[in-house]
Amino acid sequence: MSDYLKNSFQQPSDTTEEIGTEEFIVNMGPQHPSTHGVCRLLLKMDGEVIVDVVPYVGYLHRSMEKIAENRTYLQYMPLTDRIDYVSAMFCNHVFCLAVEKLAQIPVPERAEYIRVIMDELNRIASHLIWLGTFALDLGAITPFLYCFREREKILDLFEMVCGQRMTFNYMRFGGVSRDLPPEFIPKAKEFVEYFKPRVDEYEAILTNNPLFLGRTKRVGILDQKTAIDYSVTGPNLRATGFKWDLRKEEPYSIYDRFEFDIPTGTNSDVWDRYIVRIQEMRQANRILEQALNSIPEGEIKTKTPTVFRPPKGEVYARIESTRGEMGFYIVSDGSTMPYRIKLRTASFSNLAVLPEMCRGWKIADIVAIFASLDVIMPDVDR
Amino acid sequence: MTKEQILQAFQNKFPQKIEEIPFVRVDVAFKVDKDLILDVCRFAKGTPELDFNLLACLSCVDYIDHMELVYNLFSFTHKHKIAIKTSLPRGGEIDSVTLVWNAAGWHEREIAELFGMTFRNHPDPRPILLPEDWNEGYPMRKDWEGKDFVRLPKK
């Protein structure tokens, strides 16, 4: 009998030290169903336990910032849709906001209302995509079908307004590109009523489901200090119990006219990030209801020339997008094209914190943690 | 704190080094020397009356003869927002502020790669966005020439 076989018949030792373990590397992505786009994670593993995670991004880098320097302000508008295509209205809105502040363009009241309605519809649509794919990642297929059923209705509303379902190119400096069609308001009101009980439906499947709780409760905890240190914003920050929403704290557009609450979490785990987004859908619906009932008649756009020269200067404008703080830093040199645009996207900062949350968890938990961050890869790579 | 008090706090700590500049939609914006940036950032975060705990944005602008870094800071506690600017020669070196805010890590990696500058004491100075075999220079610089890149005339 060879030495090798003799050894293998020996009694197993009590400690693993004698056998000896070693760390190994697992490559996850770039093409992986649960990375929601093209993201590569290098996992350093000790058995099934994660020692470290190194995210590799940039697979979708389209150099949006460089392209901006070669376009007039208005020509850049359709490109902003592609920054975060799941919630494109916010990209439109923040770009408009920045240029309007820089060039001091007033916005008519009706246009502000339309913007708020579009933002909140988009917030619900984006959270629905997130909820569907998040549940799918955890192995629940039904919520995915439910979510896309409702999202379809929102996309129909968008199509009615601007002809597009995902990349809208709808807002303009000083307003929006076209007025709401007469059938929009009744349809949207119908949707608001239709959507209210739908959220309970999702909750009935997931919130207290023992399988779901097992995968999400006390998993991937991100404490408040680390979150702020990494500039994590949006629902991920609110899930740590930090009450912060730019719509309330630094009201832009006309958000100070509406009543809504800021949902927060307590344990800052995956489940909290889930429940915060569920609550946010209800709040978005609340804002929608108020806006649809109080929208005034009037102008939808301040007249601005197609090609215009904002004065020399710099501006940093930010809004509360679905994923957190989205900011545009624009430097104008007084010509028709921006001198420099820097895009501050929420996903970029939210993804940077991933290694801090994953250490010590099992490989299956990474899927839940990554999905709970709601990262959109084109938003990271720009 | 009012706008003047914030500026005063910085001026008291760094006399003769703070130069106010215009900036839309922030409370105060000022310029500092590049060697002071780490001290100024530490002061901005560490002083309880200022407490700038969020690095909202870190950007770089190329002005051909020099480059400017812009730090957009925000305080959750006091709701102040400021912008700190510093200028450095092209391809220059500057202290990394990753030790002050971890959020700066990825932003600095991006700037280092796209603009070609060095951040001293950066914990993880790998490139981030461009392909691994990229050797066509620093694309975000104003005078960059690429194969398929056509610059439109300025009007």
Describe this structure in words.
The complex is a heterodimer of chains A (382) and B (155). With 382 residues, chain A is of the alpha+beta class. Chain A has a single domain (56-381), classed as Cytochrome-c3 Hydrogenase, chain B (Orthogonal Bundle), CATH 1.10.645. Chain A has 16 helices and eight strands. Chain A has helices at residues 3-8, 64-68, 73-80, 88-103, 109-137, 142-162, 184-206, 210-216, 224-229, 235-238, 246-249, 270-294, 346-352, 354-358, 363-373, 377-381, and strands at 24-28, 40-46, 49-56, 171-172, 175-176, 313-321, 324-332, 340-344. In chain A, the strands form three sheets. Chain A has a three-stranded antiparallel beta sheet. Chain A has a three-stranded antiparallel beta sheet with strand order 6-7-8. Chain A is globular, with a radius of gyration of 23 Å. Chain B is built from three helices and seven strands; from the N terminus they run H-E-E-H-E-E-E-E-H-E. Chain B has helices at 3-13, 37-46, 104-116, and strands at 19-20, 28-32, 54-62, 67-74, 81-88, 93-95, 118-120. Chain B has a domain at 3-95: 2-Layer Sandwich (Beta Polymerase, domain 2). Chain B has a five-stranded mixed beta sheet, covered by helices on one side. In chain B, strands 6-7 form a two-stranded parallel sheet. In chain B, a hairpin with a 6-residue loop joins strand 4 and strand 5 (81-88). Chain B is 22% helix and 25% strand.
**CATH superfamily heading of chain A:** Cytochrome-c3 Hydrogenase, chain B
| Largest protein-protein interface | A-B, 43 and 36 residues
Number of helices of chain B: 3
Q: Please provide the ordered H/E string of secondary-structure elements of chain A.
A: HEEEHHHHHEEHHHHHHEEEHHHH
Described by the principal axes of the CA atoms, the overall outline of chain A is globular
Q: Work out the helix count of chain A.
A: 16
Main β-sheet, spatial strand arrangement of chain B? 1-2-5-4-3
Q: How are the strands of the biggest sheet of chain A laid out side by side?
A: 1-2-3
State which percent range the strand residues of chain B make up.
Answer: 15-25%
Which oligomeric state applies?
heterodimer
**How many E-type strands of chain B?**
7
Corresponding CATH architecture of the domain at 3-95 in chain B:
2-Layer Sandwich
Q: Which CATH architecture of chain A?
A: Orthogonal Bundle
CATH fold-level label of the domain at 3-95 in chain B: Beta Polymerase, domain 2
Mean pLDDT of chain B, nearest integer? 83
**Helicity of chain B, in percent?**
10-25%
CATH class of the domain at 3-95 in chain B: Alpha Beta
Q: What does the radius of gyration of chain A come to?
A: 23 Å
Mean pLDDT across every amino acid position of chain A: 86
Main sheet of chain B, how many strands, which sense, barrel? 5 strands, mixed
Low confidence ranges of chain B: none
